[in-house]
Amino acid sequence: MEKQFVARGVIPPMVTPLDPDRRLDAAGLSRLVEHILSGGVHGLFLLGTTGEATDLDYDLRRDLVRRVCDQVAGRVPVLVGVTDTVFDESVRMADWARACGAAAVVAAPPYYFAAGQPELLAYYRRLADALPLPLFLYNMPSQVKVSIAVPTVVALARHPGIIGLKDSSGNIGYFNACRYALQDDPAFSILMGPEEAMGEAVLMGAAGGVAGGANMFPRLFVDLYEAAVAHDVDTVVALQRRVMRISSLIYGIGHHNSSFVKGVKCALSLMGVCGDMLAAPREPFNASDREMVRQRLCELGVLR
Predict the structure, then answer these.
(1) Which tens digit of pLDDT belongs to each residue from 145-174?
(2) Per residue in 59-113, pLDDT tens?
(3) Cystine design at 214: which of 67, 137, 175, 221 (Cβ 3.0–4.6 Å)?
(4) Could you give the domains of the chain?
């Protein structure tokens, strides 16, 4: 398999809209897709951490992928998360993604039992050999308990079916080490996960960012990316400052690991895009936290 698909730009990790019974909210999903695409994004990433993938049943995951791919209809590439503790389930989800028209899949290391680096090397090579679509590595050590070490990333980048890395470690040293080691491989895309570092990362040569805030404000992140590509540092500084303001106002509400997703979903609900229900066992913000999000959206000029 030759590395033909190259991911660049802003590829939001889409939230998964759920109705009050925690079934897929089809109407909210349709509005969300159009809301994000209207901002000029360069792709969509389904079933990632922001999409609560590991807490969704397989029928809902498949329905989500089918509906989004049908609605997008080739306007942008769709990437699908296939992270799983079971090898064959990852392959089955990738087969479904391909049948629906997705462009690539994304996989973090299997969670629960943390794998060693030799095991990760063997696992990803075997997975890439079995997949019908190109594969993005997904470095998410805070959730899966292991980081894909830089030498492992470099070795895996040689596999023709492995086309990039989404790094959500928040470790800029790690990110830059991967980028530097693979700077002569233009077919291997390195995408920044934390949006708080996206402007700097793209200025330094990253292919783009997987910004959760682009669920709410897609045009802001597209403008930031374009300014960074153009090396318009003054604009990058100004837009990154706005990104940081959103981060401090919206993502810091609540006291749990899921507060970021709760904040994004709550904001989208208040903006009239989709509901704020989360997958079990997590619950939406309570009334006081929801009111705080509303007030902060007013501060940002989004609501009145």
Answers:
(1) 999 999 999 999 999 999 999 999 999 999
(2) 999 999 999 999 999 999 999 999 999 999 999 999 999 999 999 999 999 999 9
(3) 221
(4) 9-230 (3.20.20.70)
- With 0-12 / 13-18 / 19 or more C-beta atoms within 10 angstroms meaning exposed / middle / buried, residue 98 is middle
Q: How far apart are CA 33 and CA 215, in angstroms?
A: 9
- To the nearest 10 degrees (0 to 180), the angle between helices 150-157 and 117-130 is 30
If residue 304 lies in a helix (H) or strand (E), which one and from where to where?
A: none
Cβ neighbours of residue 163 under 8 Å, at least 6 residues apart?
3, 5, 6, 7, 104, 134, 135, 136, 187, 188, 189
Q: Which residues contact 111 (CB under 8 A, 6 or more apart)?
A: 54, 83, 85, 143, 144, 145
Indicate the pTM of the whole model: 0.96
CA 250 to chain centre: 18
Name the nearest CA neighbour of 167 among 190, 146, 144, 197: 190
d(C-alpha 69, C-alpha 99), whole Å: 10
**DSSP 3-state of 173:** helix
Q: Which two tokens stand for residue 5?
A: 């698909």
Sequence-separated contacts (24+) of 29-33 with Cβ below 8 Å: 29/64, 29/67, 29/68, 29/274, 30/67, 30/71, 31/273, 31/274, 32/215, 32/268, 32/273, 32/274, 33/68, 33/71, 33/72
- The model's pLDDT over 39-59, given as tens digits with 9 standing for 90+, comes to 999 999 999 999 999 999 999
Match 């990333």 to its residue by tokens: 153
CA distance 43 to 123: 27
**CB of 79 within 8 A of CB of 8?**
no
Tell me the two tokens of residue 80. Answer: 């699908």
